[in-house]
Amino acid sequence: MPYNRPTLTELRARNLAAIESELKGTGTPLRFSNLNIIGTADAGLAYLHYGYLDWIAKQSVPWSATDENLAGWAALKSVTQKAANVGTNNATIFTGSTGATLPAGTVLNRGDGYQYTTDAEIAIGPAGTATGAITAVLPDPNDDPTGGGDAGNTPAGTQLTLDVSISGVDSTATISTAITDGADIETEDAFRSRTLLAYQNTPQGGNDDDYESWALAVSGVTRAWTVRRLMGAGTVGVYIMIDGTDTSNNGFPAGSDGISSLDSWSGTKATGDQKRVADYIYPIQPVTALVYVCSPIKTTINFTISGLASADSTTTAAISAAIDGVLFESGNPQGATIYLSDLLVAISNVSGTGGFILTSPSANITTSTGQLPVRGTVTYT
Prior knowledge:
Elements: H1 8-22, H2 34-59, H3 67-75, E1 88-96, E2 101-102, E3 107-109, E4 115-118, E5 122-123, E6 129-136, E7 159-162, E8 169-175, H4 188-200, H5 208-216, E9 223-228, E10 235-241, E11 255-256, H6 272-281, E12 290-294, E13 297-306, H7 313-330, E14 336-338, H8 340-348, E15 357-360, E16 365-367, E17 371-380
Parallel strand pairs: 10-12, 13-17
Antiparallel strand pairs: 1-6, 1-8, 2-5, 3-4, 3-7, 4-6, 7-8, 9-10, 13-15, 14-16
Helix pairs in contact: 1-2, 3-4, 7-8
């Protein structure tokens, strides 16, 4: 049974009771008497000792350890916390006079102050334009302890401004393709989950769990699934999701499916997020496997709910969140069934939904290999 840690009030009462029982005939110590003050001070010290022992107990096992102690438990299984990943872009457009150059390391500012630097020297071409690569600058950890990598993700069309003017180069540049590969430092809860998975799943030299653990070790990757023989005999498919704070893409990776750029095989090479994962897995995978890293296929499911036509925005938002929760837990690109009963229970648990009828879908939702369901339009009638 669990140990009940005494409260400070209980410890004070125990001390005063002990003083009274040992000093016969003195009665209850007065509020500001020496005996009362000593008993109260001792109770406070004892309470701190109980707290320290409580903290030690939490650090003694990986499922409740925190900070450096969690890192120590993880290190025993060769698991490390994922660092922040910088956002990059190979298609930023610069304009100016032909022949003018931007030195490598030129600083560019986004409207909110987030900064990027050029990867190499960029020369303005005959048409007065040039395309170059830029890399996000991670902020000081004291300013942003998350690492700030996710903040560097930027949609296409965003304009950046030169930090210092350069002769012959226009002061603004345009990001022509979205920056999506920035990621924050892995949260402690996610780090703990991967640590526990490492303890639960002993490496087997390339089984399903191994491929999923390898994919999850890459910055930004939050979910992974393995599909055997996805592209035929000798191939392994690894589906990944990037469930970060940017919800514009519903967590689907930005890039194209394929094999590692390090592989000499003539197959299609992965790009973007898929490339990062494929390149990480390649040096540690079994040598006989040809690994394809893929994005799940977004499969939109529309819903129609009757009986809640007058539901307010708070209720409808809660219903949408409940549906998302079921699809998140049950969806699986290995092929899955989302039970209608799970959706009904989730919606009914939302306050103010009494009497609703889910008219569509009207049966269990089945997805094929590669498909991952996401909520589409929810219509209320």
